[in-house]
Write a structure and sequence with these properties.
- The chain has about 425 residues and is of the alpha/beta class.
- It contains twelve helices and 20 strands.
- The chain has a ten-stranded mixed beta sheet, sandwiched between helices. Strands 14, 16, 17 and 18 form a four-stranded mixed beta sheet that branches.
- Strand 3 and strand 4 form a beta hairpin.
- Helix 2 packs across helix 7 and helix 4 runs parallel beside helix 6.
Length: about 425
């Protein structure tokens, strides 16, 4: 068996939660391989919206195993809140969730360090969600972090206090007031919640499941253009969001990766700071935001909106080895008479078609225009029934990337999904 991977190809918010939920009937195991509770995966079904932050998107599927992998950073407070919400819905969480020993813990002081650091940057803020993700990954790479497996150790409290005091000393460098008393009490309650679940050696478990014929779907958070190495640095997240991150985050070899599902919106969005070549500042951008309900599932922050960026999409498709494309929110473009796609960038006096190293300098997108379909495609369930203009748009994307668009979403519900 292979591990199939599903990940975002833009700056996050592509609709990964819905896609994983649609794909999960074919998999016995759903595994989250990186990221933290700054990512919100929204699932729409039975006229309800369910937002998952740390828990894999297969949690609502019967008999599915959901693994929180080594590459994830976990906040016990937010995890416990999420568990409580799921249990209120009648979900048998303890039978479905397994947590990697090597996943790192977000401490209350990590959140304070995140807030203090971002406040100190002033105008050069990177747009952090202030959930302690970056400082936790810094402790991980600095070999200071606390891991989930440590909560089982007799010396856990000693290790916690040692790391906390290190953070307190670091916070003294900032002009920043804070009080973690209440959150810390919730944090230790969250630690007790973690102890209710099987705490596993993820690399052994995932390979054992594969060897036993279990199909695994690896789920990424954020998007490829936020990858710490290959994204629009420094306006990136703190982990490897691309396909290679699944190998590291779950402990599986590269030769065990199978299909790579790359998800993208029919247009582009971005939350927070950072370069966005096709961003629209006019009424069209506002229309995309309103029609697409472009507000963060976890943070509620407005998403910046713009046309599809083919330069960036081809780049993401290449570095991830995407085998199947999935186009989301196609219906948001229903009313536009003209739709544009950036096919190149003008940087100074040069025209480039490869995603550049320096994305902070002035980039002018060069657009190709398409005739809009100007009709409601939400009720369409077969590709053959789409209007000519829509099919031309899809087939242009396939030609440019060299990858087939296998799934098309025309609405938020499970049923509003066309599999070609």
């Amino acid at each position: 068996m292979k591990v199939d991977v599903v990940l975002g190809l833009q700056w996050g918010d592509e609709g990964k939660g819905k896609v994983v939920d649609v794909l999960t009937p074919d998999y016995q195991v759903i595994a989250r391989f990186q990221g933290g509770p700054n990512a919100g995966h929204s699932l729409h079904f039975a006229d309800k919206v369910h937002v998952l932050r740390s828990i894999p998107s297969g949690i609502f599927r019967d008999n599915a195993i959901n693994i929180i992998g080594n590459g994830v950073v976990l906040d016990p407070v937010m995890f416990a809140q999420e568990i409580g919400e799921l249990e209120q819905l009648g979900v048998d969480v303890t039978a479905k969730i397994r947590i990697a020993k090597k996943a790192h813990l977000i401490l209350p002081t990590h959140r304070m360090l995140d807030a203090a650091s971002e406040a100190a940057k002033g105008k050069s803020k990177i747009g952090s969600t202030l959930r302690g993700i970056g400082p936790t990954y810094m402790d991980k790479t600095g070999r200071n972090g606390l891991r989930v497996g440590d909560i089982l150790s007799p010396s856990f409290m000693e290790r916690y206090e040692r790391l906390k005091q290190k953070h307190v000393a670091m916070l003294a460098q900032f002009d920043f007031e804070y009080d973690i008393t209440e959150y810390e009490a919730q944090w230790f309650e969250g630690i007790e919640t973690l102890k209710r679940f099987p705490i596993i050696e993820c690399e052994h478990e995932t390979n054992r499941l594969l060897n036993n014929g279990q199909a695994i779907l690896a789920e990424g958070a954020q998007g490829s253009l936020l990858d710490v190495d290959y994204g629009t640095y420094p306006f990136v997240t703190s982990s490897n969001t691309i396909c290679a991150g699944a190998c590291i985050g779950l402990g599986v070899a590269p030769n065990r990766i199978g299909e790579v599902y790359g998800i993208f919106k029919a247009y582009c969005t971005r939350v927070g700071s950072g370069p966005f070549p096709t961003e629209l500042f006019d009424q069209t951008g506002k229309d995309l935001q309103q029609i697409g309900h472009e507000f963060g599932a976890v943070t509620g922050r407005e998403r910046r909106c713009g046309w599809l960026d083919m330069v960036a999409l081809k780049y993401s498709t290449t570095i991830n080895g995407v085998t199947q494309l999935i186009m989301m929110k196609s219906d948001v473009l229903n009313t536009f008479p003209t739709i544009k796609v950036a096919v190149a960038y003008r940087i100074g006096d040069k025209e480039v078609t490869e995603f550049p190293y320096e994305t902070n300098e002035e980039i002018t997108p060069i657009y190709k225009e398409f005739e809009g379909w100007q009709c409601d495609i939400n009720k369409i369930r077969r590709y053959e029934d789409f209007p000519r203009q829509f099919k031309e748009y899809v087939e242009f994307i396939e030609k440019e990337t060299g990858v087939p668009v296998k799934i098309i979403s025309v609405g938020p519900d499970r049923e509003e999904t066309i599999v070609r």
